[in-house]
Amino acid sequence: MKHRRSDFPEGFLFGTATSSYQIEGHAQGGAGRTHWDDFAATPGNVVRAENGARACDHYNRYAEDLDLVAAAGFDCYRFSTSWARVMPDGRSVNPEGLDFYDRLTDAMLERGIKPCVTLYHWELPSALADQGGWRNRDIADWFAEYTSVIMGRIGDRMYSVATINEPWCVAWLSHFEGHHAPGLRDIRATARAMHHVLLAHGRATQVMRDMGLSNLGAVFNFEWATPADDSAAAAEAAALHDGYYNRWFLGGVFKGAYPENVLEGLGPHLPANWQDDFPVIQTPVDWCGLNYYTRKVIAPNDGAWPGLHGVEGPLPKTFMDWEIYPDGLYQFLTRTARDYTADLPLIVTENGMASADVIHAGRIDDPQRITYVEAHLDAVQRALAEGVPVQGYFIWSLMDNYEWALGYEKRFGLVHVDFDTLVRTPKASYHALAAALKA
Ligand code: IFM
Q1: Which of 404, 410, 414 maximizes ligand 1 atoms within 8 Å of its Cβ, making it the mutation to test the pocket?
Q2: Residue nearest to atom 10 of ligand 1 (CA)
Q3: Exposure check for the chain: N or C terminus, fewer CB within 10 A?
Q4: 12: how many CB neighbours lie within 10 A of its CB?
């Protein structure tokens, strides 16, 4: 790799990220059924109907996995706790689940790794989905209760805490586009989920403040929107995509306001008195996390609101068919600081690429992943040079895992996983990063 740790400011943190349902093996340890189990069991939703029942069996192999994190020289490990493992029916506690996260935390600390937890990375207990899930305002209280239970057990040893990973996926992707659990395509459900996900973030942050915890953050996924041509209509469509994908969440948490262009569509479907929730939604955080992968080229169409669609872009693509556009990361870092967060620390909490990695004679060569990471680290350095307070960079992901509706074939890992034998093999990108971090 062309970068070295020493090319970044003193104290800049490097980490790698995973999430519970994608790696743990959800069928073990008394975890409850989740809406992802239900979604995957419904024909047509997930490639080969794959689910997270076994995944990478991290539940049993976490020591080996954390050895890999430590051996690469990462400062931090970003993991998530599963609501359904800690509270199988969403309300009562599974002691085995708490014990697992307790062991996992201590195993990180024993290896000198900073634990960076995310409280929700999408495994909603089915029992709560039955009660309306993210459409039900009560979810903010349910999530606050879960937060106090899990943080009551491991909060004292966390380096940092994020509430909800990628609220756009939780709300829009899952309730408007139907691509993720619960698989709805309903504008009213979407509007409620878009609001309740931020309300739940705020309530959980309040709970943790009351517990005396610190270094609390919010994590958003951003996608840059490029107009398909020079027309005013394309510019308007791209601005709307930017509104519901990116600005809705930043606006809610940092300004106490939602974008007007998005309210034109979602406003009639929001719950009564939604504006009154902004004081909770705006509960101060200590940092803002950005997950960034790609951009989308946006064109207008004559359909119902939002009246736009993505079109094929000209740039090289990853195995997800996502265009590689590192400039978007630079744009988001500079824009977020300028328009929303000022001096608040920003952390790139996810960045990485899927490729069709294969083993040849025990080696996996993934030069495209090394190039991808280099290009995005260049973007971070450009933002740093302009004074943007970027404090860390996390690669998605430590190892190949369950890529949700796309099953197990989209490999994002620095470490290859054979899903038959569960053998882990570090890829060339892992070795390159290890050398860069030690240099
Ligand atoms: O695998 C996902 C992860 O769960 C959330 N962020 C994006 C990743 C790649 O799609």
Answers
A1: 404
A2: 403
A3: C
A4: 16
pLDDT in tens, 353-366: 999 999 999 999 99
CA distance 261 to 415: 42
> Whole-model pTM?
0.98
Structure tokens at 119: 């409280």
Output the CA 275–ligand 1 centroid distance in Å.
30
Which residue of 78, 121, 412, 414 sits with most ligand 1 atoms within 8 Å of its CB, as the best mutation to test the pocket? 412
First to last CA, the chain: 11
For residue 403, give the ligand 1 atom closest to its CA.
1
Size of the chain, expressed as the number of residues it contains: 439
**Residue where the block lists tokens 């600005």:** 247
The string over 62-80, giving b where at least 16 C-beta atoms fall within 10 Å of a residue's C-beta and e elsewhere, is beebbebbbebebbbbbbb
Count the Cβ atoms, other than its own, within 10 Å of residue 215.
16
350 is catalytic: yes
Domain hosting residue 390, numbered range: 5-438
Catalytic residue among 24, 223, 350, 403: 350
Domain count, the chain: 1
Pocket of ligand 1 (CB under 6 A): 19, 22, 166, 291, 350, 396, 403, 412
Strand partners, 426: 415
Residue from 166, 223, 323, 403 carrying the catalytic annotation: 166
Q: Please tell me the distance from the alpha carbon of residue 107 to that of residue 87, in angstroms, as a whole number.
A: 22
Residues 36-64: tens digit of each pLDDT = 999 999 999 999 999 999 999 999 999 99
**Tokens, residue 155:** 């909060």
Q: Tens digits of per-residue pLDDT, 295-314?
A: 999 999 999 999 999 999 99
